[in-house]
Amino acid sequence: MLDDSDVDTRQDRQPGREYRMSREPDYEPRYPGSGRLKGKRVLVTGGDSGIGRAVSVLFAREGADLAIVYLEEDKDAKTTCEMVEEEGGRCHLIKGDVASKSFCEKAVKETVDCLGGLDILINNAAEQHVETEAEDISEEQLKRTFATNLFGYFFMAQAALPHLKKGDSIVNTTSVTAYRGQVLLVDYSATKGAIVSFTRALSQQIAGDGIRVNAVAPGPIWTPLIPASFPEEKIESFGKHVPLGRPGEPNEVAPCYLFLACEDSSYMTGQVMHPNGGEMVGS
User: Fold this and answer.
1) Where is the stretch described as Disordered (predicted)?
2) Annotated catalytic residue: which of 70, 153, 179, 188?
């Protein structure tokens, strides 16, 4: 049990720590597994917390072994790894920065060496920084946001593709902000729009190889990135603007990744799923 000194409404560093959140996100799968990923080897970036944690635990319940890439959140990563193992999956933790091409190559190699191969890549790591005025976004912040949110996805895909085969898949995390923007997250929104285009272009390029590339565009989901990004007044009202009137939980988003990663979506590539609480956006 955490005491009051261990929890925060507002956190001061990216990408945030789940164990310090004032209300823990709901990441546990909602239903028994059915073996939809039995024997699959999966690499999840940003898998230590939030949506990445929920995806990792759900995939393990469905029979997958996982390699989880995380930046620096050792405690969260260890908890996720323990949850994966409790579900019967193997879990290998890889600490590092996806903005580095050499690290992405190292992470994929470690995954293949430890798990015996790679069948599914989940590109999910991200960061975001609130700025009320576009002209106040520094060159350093702009480069950093694109390096993590877009270049990291590109580098991981480049490293993973030589190991993927017919029937394998890549799932990228974009965002509702790619479709409607976000006035406080101009650079972040730009990266998420680029991820949509990246998904569509790459899916066409490798469709002939039988490898599918799709994306998920979450709306307001309660993850560590929220208290690590917004002031307290924004956190209190977070997610209440959508038709369903509340933020979503990571375990409400994870099934989209499962659907796109497994054979249930075998006739889908270049597509985006929208778990966003009812916002109507262009696809």
Assistant:
1) 1-34
2) 188
